[in-house]
Structure formats: structure tokens, C-alpha cells
Amino acid sequence: MMEALSGGQIFDGQSIINDCAVLIEDDKIVSVIPISDIPQAAKVIDLEGSLLAPGFIDIQVNGGGGVMLNDKPDVDTLKTIAESHRQFGTTAMLPTLISDDFLTMRATADVISKARQQKIPGIIGVHFEGPYLNIKRKGVHDPLKIRPFEDQAKALYCEPDLGVVIATLAPENCPEGLIRELSESGVRVFAGHTAANYKEIKHAITEGLIGFTHLFNAMTPMESRAPGVVGAALEDAETWCGLIVDGIHVHPATLKVAISAKQAGKMVLVTDAMPTVGAVEQTFTIRGETITAIDGVCATAEGTLSGSDLNMASAVRNTVELLGQPIEEALRMASLYPAELLGLSSNVGQIKTGFQADLVLLDNALRVKRTWIAGQVQFH
User: Fold this and answer.
1) 325-346 in b/e burial notation, b at 16+ Cβ within 10 A?
2) Is position 26 annotated as part of the catalytic site?
3) CATH architecture, range 55-341
4) CATH number assigned to the domain with residue range 3-53+350-379, chosen from the 4 options 3.40.50.10490, 3.40.1400.10, 2.30.40.10, 3.40.30.10
5) Which one is catalytic: 100, 272, 309, 358?
6) What is the pLDDT of residues 244-272, one digit of tens each?
């Protein structure tokens, strides 16, 4: 049955419009029309003055709902993670495996394939963050799991039924030609947990590197005579940067400068979420070490940041409140830009005729009231 979502504002991915309705049928957006043109046969859903926007797309999700992908890579884990993030407006995600052994990588690829075959809502691919990183910038990653690139990973990354694949690597440790080979095979290669210098990153970009995982964190900083990874990332007009906007991982002033410096449309909000998101329990373990979320900070007892307790709705609010970005731009950073990064912008990331009906309804405080995935209400 056709539904007309009416009675609120609509952010279509470009601008906020009024006095219009969004018609959806089955899993698609039929059209955006004036309220006066709503068909009599359509069921009208009252948005109660709230803001309807494209659903959020998160490219870096380690866990949620009390579980973490590394701990148990199976379908139930993926369902729990996806469901826990829907209440925060996430309609599409890349479950993220941090550095682990190859058997766990293999199991993760298998379960992502199975989840996509079962059409679990919101699972659109996978992000392998490591293990081919630089131990000097390991963060909370297990140093015993970080290792040189293995040829068997190439075939794994390129399996056709995984959906969109991001591989976060340390470019300085990659064999010559690897980034080009992966890129030409459709893998989206990001730099992260890297001690590369500016020249090494510039070379990696020519080879096909397209992005930077959690900009500023676990990478060579920008200095006056050594631009480092950060300098190369901000200078380049074509690459993408993931930002953790929680007020903790990166100082808001630093993020403001970075957004001003970077080519418009290339900054993407990510959560780097851990099991505490959407969960009652606010502790979890990595390698037997207890991580606790306190006031939104996931850290070890020694204070090492360990992912985040951030959700996408909070990331959007923080981008408005802490960084002073317009609501429209914050929403684009959570939907349109990641859709473009992933090569999915012809189907998601905007409210347009023919697009999948992945939507989020936000109140005046930018808190989620309702989430739709493929036209079906997933959170209310």
C-alpha cells in the first residue's frame, strides 16, 4: 500500500523543504509532492512537525547492543549490532572487524555473505580495519595480530558477495602495487593506524587510496615541516575522511579547521561504535582487558581510547552543536557523503524518486523518533 509521509519538514539530501509529502510504496520512494497532491488511496502518516531525512550510513561499526563482531562473527551478532543502531537512525552500515587472525577474517566474510543472502536490513558490506597496520600506531588493536599483508587476504577482500568492502591498511607496510590491485578490484582502500610520511601517502593516493580512517587518530600528525598523513589527507581534493565527532577523539576546534581545509563533501561521520552503544552494560573486553564507557568515552584503565560510545544521531547533533555546521551539512555528512564514498549514491543518501526508502525522523533536538529501512519501520 502506498504511504504518504506528511506533516513535517523534509530534508531531501540537498535542502529542507516544507508543505510536501514523501510517497513510499514497497521499498521505494515514489515521489516527493506537494501536500495538496497526495493521492486519495494513499495512507497518510503524520510526521507531527518533525524532520524527515535520509537514513544514516555508518562505515565503521565494531559493535552494539552488548556484542562485538570480533568476539562472535555470526548472523545473530550482526542482527544485534544492526538492530541496536537503528534506534539512532542508522539504516545502512559496514560491520567492522578490527585486527584479528585470518580464521576470524574468513568467518566474518562468510557471515557477511550469509547476512546479505538473508537480507538482514542495513548490512551493506564489511570494513576490515587491520590487521595489516603499523604497530607504532596500533591504538587498542592487538599487537600480536598486526602483521605483514597476506596474499590470501586479496581473494577474501574481493569476494563478490560481500557487498561494499573497505580495507584499512598502513600504506607504508604494503607491497608495491597492492593498493592499486585492490582498488582496481573494487575494494575501497583506506589509510589508518599508519606511521606513513606525506610522500608515502601521496604515492598511495596515486595507487588508488581513497580515504582515511578516523582522521587524526592513530596516524602521523601534521607538523610545519612534515605534513604527515593528516596533511596529505586534508590537501587532497578527491579522498574521503572519516570523523569521530564525539568531542573526545578530536578537539572540536581541530575538526573545524579540518572541515574548512578539506574539499567540500569529503568529510564523513562515523561512530567507530563499540558494544556499549544501545546496550545497558557499559563494559566489555578486548584481549581480556576491560573497556569501560564513562560519559561517552570508551577507554582502558590506562586511558587508551578503545573505539567509541557514539551513535550516528549524536554524531549529527555534535556536528551542529560543537562544530557549528548547518543541520543540512551535518545530515549530508551522515547520509549523502557516505553514500557517494561507497558508490551507492544512485540508490540511497537522498530522498528522491526511485531511491530506496531508507529514512529517519528527527525531533527538534535531532533525536530519532522513527527509522525506516526499505520502506519498513524498523524503530518507532
Assistant:
1) bebbbbbbbbbbbbbbbbebbe
2) no
3) Alpha-Beta Barrel (3.20)
4) 2.30.40.10
5) 272
6) 999 999 999 999 999 999 999 999 999 99
